[in-house]
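Before surveying the methods themselves, let us examine one representative protein, written as a sequence plus integers encoding its fold.
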Amino acid sequence: MSKGAAGYSNTKVGEDFVLINSLTLVTSIFDPIGICLDPLAASINHSCLPNAAVTFDGAQLSLRSLREIEEHGEITISYIENTDPYNRRQRLLAHQYFFSCACVKCQHGPTLREDRFLGEEIDIKNLKDLEDNMFLILAKAGTEEDTTTAIPQLLEAMRKLKGSASWPMKRQPWPEIRRVFAVNYVRAGRWTEALPHLLTLYFHIDPVLLPEPWHPLRVVHNWFLVMLFLQLASLSVSDLTSMKLIERYQIDYGKVIWGLAQEVEANVDKSHGSKSSFALLVKRKVEELRVDMTRNGAAAVHLTGRDWLEEEWTKLRAIAEIADTGI
């Protein structure tokens, strides 16, 4: 892509210059569609512990703060996946952007959560070899159009990570493998099989890797879950044999959908901007849900507070616990 941009510019600018001064152009839900060349955005420095994230709304680029930034304080973004282990982050930055990172996070070296394994007696060399192999599988499966090819590859990857007995489920690339695995299940129409993995991300992984509730990626992940529950609510046990997998939990879909939608609505202004197309889409859908739930003057659920959600959230946590039983 950078080669095409360099050629299109009809200048002597090299591909490396285009690469290191561009951003990945994505949709509002972070599907990559191209590259963005913006002089101002290109001047923003990298940090593996950034205080801002980049979002796009069509051709409009925005910087969304992840936490409070002091007046005249530097705004930083992450050029790479900043939840990756230390050595991988350094390798990617050196290869793609030609610098070594000395941010506040990298100053700790490979000692933080991203680099820890489970247990005391571990074979570091074998685990590092496994890590390299898993990232290769992830890269291949992430571009695979055929779900019948991608799903077995990702399933085998998760089996190897689980089988190592030393790999935390919050250490990359397992979280991203799980997410891509679940997305492929959804693409294949295997919605109930995707659900435990998406709930694992919701309850156990995103709150750690994306701790800000308004982190744009976390908000998009939660909206994806809303859409999945809307799909499940439209089905019956007779539609899919696999519906029996979750039918025994007797989920109140109305409560779950409303609770998740409220969570997204509460954070979308900070994550994407109140006037962004994604925020407007979310607000329209939430209003549709509100109308449906209060039709004929009788509310199907309470529209404020979260106490009434606890029973349903207990059920969802139980479903998340079965995510790895078949691995």
Q: What stands out?
A: The longest helix spans residues 253-272.
